Recover the amino acids of this structure.
């Protein structure tokens, strides 16, 4: 993952109080968001296939999805070395982004794997 630009190279004028505002590279932030999106999509598909093979139905399958997404979020935070603000502008980016898009992939592969294993 790509980090933000370090503001230590900027010079402070004497007598003028400046606050350190982290600056983010748009390309790096976009690349990091792409990594999150691809990771969530991959884990949604994998989780859906596993849920279908195990025969989860109804509410249990959705609980399994949110468990998989929690593990994915923890993995992404660990990949960022637990300093999320170095790579993203907020915690919501790593925890919530892509959650509903991944749900659609999960349900698709969940029903597909369930049908293949348990019905046919």
């Amino acid at each position: 993952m790509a980090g933000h630009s370090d503001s230590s190279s900027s010079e402070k004028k004497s007598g003028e109080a400046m606050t350190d505002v982290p600056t983010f590279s748009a390309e790096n932030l976009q690349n990091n968001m792409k990594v999150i999106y691809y990771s969530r999509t991959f884990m949604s598909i994998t989780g859906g296939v596993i849920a279908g093979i195990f025969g989860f139905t109804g509410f249990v399958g959705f609980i399994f999805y949110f468990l998989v997404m929690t593990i994915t979020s923890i993995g992404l935070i660990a990949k960022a070395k637990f300093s999320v603000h170095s790579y993203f502008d907020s915690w919501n980016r790593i925890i919530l982004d892509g959650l509903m898009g991944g749900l659609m992939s999960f349900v698709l592969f969940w029903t597909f794997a369930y049908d293949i294993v348990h019905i046919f």
About this structure: The CA atoms of residues 71 and 94 lie 12 Å apart. Residues 26-54 form the longest helix (29 residues).
